[in-house]
Amino acid sequence: MAHQRVPSTIDAVKEPHSVSLKVLRYLRLLQFNASLRTDQYPDSLVPPSQSNSPLPPSPSPSPDLIASLAYPSTKPDAFILSPLLTLPPAFGSAYVGETFSCTLCANNEILPGSTPQKTISNVRIEAEMKIPSSATPTSLPLSPPSPSSSSSSSSSDENEKDTGVDLDASKSLQKIVNFDLKEEGSHVLAVTVTYTETTSTSGRIRTFRKLYQFICKGCMVVRTKAGPLPPSPSSSSLRKWALEAQLENCGEDTICLDGVVLETRDGFRSVGLNGEERPVLMPGD
User: Fold this and answer.
1) CB atoms within 10 A of CB 281
2) What is the pLDDT of residues 142-165, one digit of tens each?
C-alpha cells in the first residue's frame, strides 16, 4: 500500500526576503590627463568638435533601435546601485598591502502601497573576514558612510548596534567596512543581515547570510643583498655597508613606486643612491 510522503521543510517554497543585500567594493581610480591639443595633431586628425568644418549631424535612431540597446542614452544619470557594480560571490584578485574597502547596503525591497503591509525594523548588518592563517573568522567594525552619521554620539552608536535601525519602504542602510590585507591566500567576506518583519497580525525575526570569496596575491617581491664597503683613507673610522634591493612586479598590473625607504635602527644612518624618484614597473619587471 502506498503511503503519502510527508512534505519536508526543504521542499517547502521559501519566501523571499523583504531586505536585500548589495556589496560594492571601493577601487582606486587611475588619474590621467585626457585633454587634447590641436597643435599636436595634423589637420586630418583634429577632433570634429575642434575642426573648422564639423561633420553633419547623424540621423536620429529609430525607437526600435533605442529600445534594443542596453544603455539607450549616453547622458550620465544619477548613481544607481545596479547589479553590475556589486561584488559577485567570487570576484578578481586583491593584493597584499592594500586595504579592502567596500560598502554594505541593506535595502528595504517593499514598495510603497504594496499588500500585505509589512514594517521592517531592527535592521542590523554584521561582517566577518575569514583569513587563511586563522580558523576563526575576524569580526570587522562597521562605520557610517557619511560624516553626519559618524559625528553622532557614542551612545547612539551603541544603541544602533544593539537595536538596529528602522527602514521605511524603498529605503536602505549603508555601512562601510575596511580590512588590511596582510597575507596571501583565499579570503572570505561573510555578511549577515538580521531584521524584524512585522505585519498587522504577526511579527518575526528573519536573517540571511552571504559569502564573498576573493584571492589575495602578492604584487611585489623584494630581494636584498648586503655587504661591507672597503674603508676610505679620507673617511672616519665609521664602518659602512652597501645594501642593494631588487624589486620585482609579480602582479598583473602596472606599479608606480611612490618611494622606497630603508628603515634603520638607532645608531645607523642611510643615504639613498637611487636616481629615478618614481619608477614604473610593468608586470614582470
Assistant:
1) 18
2) 887 444 444 444 444 444 455 688
Reduced to 3 states (helix: H, G, I; strand: E, B; else coil), residue 40 is helix
CATH tag, 19-24+79-217 = 2.60.40
Q: Please give the C-alpha separations between residue 79 and each of 82, 85, 92, in angstroms, as whole numbers.
A: 9, 11, 23
Q: Residue type for 110, please?
A: I
Residues 6 or more apart whose CB falls under 8 angstroms from that of 90 comprise 212, 213, 214
Question: How far is C-alpha 256 from the geometric centre of its chain's CA atoms?
Answer: 20
Cα 193 to Cα 199: distance, rounded to the nearest angstrom:
19
pLDDT in tens, 27-74: 654 443 334 344 444 444 444 444 455 555 556 655 555 555 555 555
Confidence of residue 102 (pLDDT cuts 50, 70, 90): confident
CA distance 4 to 115: 35
Per residue in 163-193, pLDDT (tens digit) is 688 888 888 899 999 999 998 888 999 999 9
Residue 131: count of CB within 10 angstroms of its CB: 18
Q: State the span(s) of the chain assigned CATH 2.60.40.
A: 19-24+79-217
> Which grid cell is 168?
521605511
- Residues 179/100, Cβ–Cβ less than 8 Å: yes
Residue 201 is given by DSSP the state S
Neighbouring residues of 136: CB distance < 8 A, sequence distance ≥ 6: none
